[in-house]
Design goal:
The longest helix has 21 residues. 35% of the residues lie in helices and 20% in strands. α2 crosses α6 and α9 packs parallel to α10. α3 links the parallel β2 and β3. With 333 residues, it is of the alpha/beta class. The protein starts with a helix and ends in a 12-residue tail after the last helix. The C terminus is likely disordered. The protein has an eight-stranded mixed sheet with strand order 1-11-6-9-5-2-3-4, with helices on both faces.
Length: 333
């Protein structure tokens, strides 16, 4: 195990506070940068995120070339608010309509590759209550300053926010510590150096993202790290400390659903890599129980585990970006 990676490839956002220098590096390399916000009912936080990113990283410093919202079908005012504040807003169902439609965060991230124009894509969750423009520029910075780095993850303290908007100083990252870190320790010890592999904030070069498949749901961050690691190695990764992130926290049952999807994704990946051989098909249902006056009632959560192929394999994408021909094996997925 290479213990030097965490020392050499871990940064603090203050290392990159000279945004003008980042703009110069971007222009020198003739790159475009896209910010993507995947959304579902984020009307309480989306406006502030867009305002801060546009004012600081488009108007004041021309680091970002576009802000794109890909929405899963919000029933609140998320899309209208995002459009009013200058984002380029798309409904996920209307992107690549030839393909069967799915719902999920991974679906939004995958389809963002088709509608964005950047050489670098920055993904940020849309529910960040303490949003700051460092969430974007600090993730882009290692990609601009170090040629070997191609994918950058965020990490931070994650205080738990209560319904009364009070904040506890510790907590958060529970699925990482209970599921992902033990699995990484068993199968990929080098990857334990990634502090928060499930963080929703990361940036990468398009040519890397378009070459890997995307599970449509919560498993996308896990599969992305594993596929990039297997294809390119650990040295292409970096991580940046953003200090603190305050967001909407989920209850234990919701985290159980997330863990179920991530665990299923992980098992499928290590089987694909020939680490294990599953003798039986995995079931698609998570079964949880609620206590009722009549006894215990089962609550079933179905996850079929759909996965999008590498975007490079989609004919419309190759045509739009001039990527040439494919062997066609994934075209109808």
């Amino acid at each position: 195990m290479n213990h030097n990676w965490i020392l050499q490839n871990t940064f603090h956002h203050s290392d990159f506070k000279d945004i003008r220098e980042l703009v110069e590096a971007k222009e020198k390399k003739n790159l475009k940068i896209s910010l993507c916000l995947p959304t579902l009912n984020e009307e309480k936080t989306i406006a502030k995120e867009i305002i801060i990113m546009r004012s600081e990283l488009m108007t004041r410093f021309p680091l970002l070339d576009e802000i794109v919202v890909v929405d899963s079908g919000s029933t609140d005012n998320t899309r209208d608010i995002a459009a009013a504040y200058g984002a380029d807003v798309h409904k996920a169902d209307e992107i690549l309509p030839r393909l069967p439609g799915y719902k999920g965060k991974g679906e939004n991230l995958w389809k963002a590759l088709y509608i964005t124009k950047g050489d670098i894509i920055v993904y940020l969750d849309a529910d960040i209550k303490n949003i700051h423009h460092r969430f974007a520029y600090a993730l882009v910075a290692p990609l601009l300053k170090f040629d070997k780095i191609r994918y950058v993850k965020a990490f931070y303290d994650r205080p738990l926010s209560t319904d009364q908007e009070k904040i506890r100083p510790t907590g958060g990252g529970r699925v990482t510590e209970l599921i992902i870190r033990p699995l990484f320790s068993l199968f990929f010890p080098e990857l334990t150096q990634i502090i928060q592999p499930l963080s929703g904030e990361y940036a990468a070069f398009r040519d890397m993202l378009e070459a890997i498949p995307f599970p449509i749901g919560y498993g996308v961050e896990t599969s992305m790290i594993l596929d990039i690691y297997k294809k390119y190695g650990l040295d292409v990764f970096a991580q940046v400390d953003l200090d603190r992130r305050v967001h909407r926290n989920q209850d234990t049952k919701a985290l159980g659903k997330m863990a179920f999807v991530i665990l299923k994704t992980f098992l499928r990946r290590i089987e694909k890599y020939d680490f294990i051989s599953l003798k039986k098909k995995l079931f698609d249902e998570l079964i949880q129980y609620n206590r009722t006056p009549e006894g215990f009632k089962a609550e079933k959560y179905n996850v079929e585990g759909h996965e999008r192929p590498p975007m490079m394999m989609i004919p419309e994408y190759r045509e739009k970006f001039g990527k040439g021909e494919s062997d066609g094996q994934y075209d109808n997925n």
